Amino acid sequence: MPTIPPERPLAVLAITRAGIALAGAVVKALPGARLYAPQAMGDLAEAAAPGACTCYSGPLRELIPRLFADCGAIVAIFSVGALVRLIAPHLRDKHQDPAVVVLDEAGRFAIPVLSGHLGGANALAGRLAAALGATPVLTTASDVRQTLAVDLLGRELGWTLEASANDLLRASSAVVNDEPVALVQEAGSRDWWPGHANGRAGPLPANLHCFSSLDALDLGHYRALLWIGDRPLPPLPEGFSGALVIYRVPEASQ
After folding, report:
1. Model confidence pLDDT, tens digit, residues 26-81
2. pLDDT band at 141, cuts 50/70/90?
3. C-alpha distances in angstroms, 164 versus 14, 153, 221, 227?
4. 3-state secondary structure the chain
5. Residues 152-203: pLDDT tens digits?
6. What is the pLDDT of residue 106?
7. Percent of the chain with pLDDT over 70
8. What angle do the packed helices 17-29 and 121-132 form, to 10 degrees?
């Protein structure tokens, strides 16, 4: 499961009495998290998260740029609409933006809003749901369908991904649209599925066909090739027009 690096703090934002009370439970559930609340509610914030709260004066929108730049994740306990308006001016891209999750004040739903996939907001929503008895509201296709996330394969194992943005998009599209995809694994742990992305409990998707070698594999039948190895990729057949994604396995993980 993706985690927030310790050097990137996790901020919990709450602006109401009920939100601050729930924020206390969130801070307890997420080691290293810190509650940010209005100065006017400082006593409530300190009682909810002793020694782990910061009270600010002025509007919350003035605090957002610093949190957005410094934090690995933000949990906001107020409306999705209000949050979107606050963070919109600071969006960069999915490789840089922090994970952002919204909780309703009753703690019933955990909603990933930003960087759900690569940034770990989907996984964070799952952790919050488990801790609070909430329901995670996931909209990322691979997580909703519990299928392969092409851009996360082997990340927790230290594998590095090599692919053009176009090939990555095409391969991901093939996976979620149930088109045939060949996965050839020559190296690395073969027990990667249970820990993949946010964790997978079911079987491999039926459209993912696994092989141990490229030998005699007719790539013309597949829309994408996912190759896992610790050596240079062997030459592919001429005319192969499918998407190609390479996962490099470091020697240390052999």
Report:
1. 999 999 999 999 999 999 999 999 999 999 999 999 999 999 999 999 999 999 99
2. confident
3. 40, 16, 21, 14
4. CCCCCCCCCEEEEECCHHHHHHHHHHHHHCCCEEEEEEHHHHHHHHHHCCCCEEEECCCHHHCHHHHHHHCCEEEEECCHHHHHHHHHHHCCCCCCCCEEEEECCCCCEEEEEECCCCCCHHHHHHHHHHHHCCEECCCCHHHHCCCCCHHHCCHHHCCEEECCHHHHHHHHHHHHCCCCEEEEECCCCCCCCCCCCCCCCCCCCCCEEEECCCCCCCHHHCCEEEEEECCCCCCCCCCCCCEEEEEECCHHHC
5. 899 888 999 999 999 999 999 999 999 999 999 999 999 999 888 767 878 8
6. 95
7. 95
8. 100
Residue type, position 250, single letter: P
For the chain, which residues make up each domain, given as ranges?
10-139, 150-253
Question: Rounded to an integer, what distance in angstroms lies between the CA atom of residue 135 and that of residue 129?
Answer: 6
CB neighbourhood size of 97 (10 A): 18
Token digits of residue 138:
């996931």
Q: Which fold has domain 10-139?
A: Rossmann fold (3.40.50)
Taking the C-alpha atoms of residue 219 and residue 214, their distance in angstroms, rounded to an integer, is 9
Report the distance separating Cα 105 and Cα 79, nearest Å: 9
Distance from chain centroid for Cα 251: 26
- The pair of three-digit structure tokens given for residue 71, joined into one six-digit string: 């934090």
Contact (Cβ atoms closer than 8 angstroms) between residue 203 and residue 145: no
Residues 232 and 249 sit within 8 Å (Cβ to Cβ): no
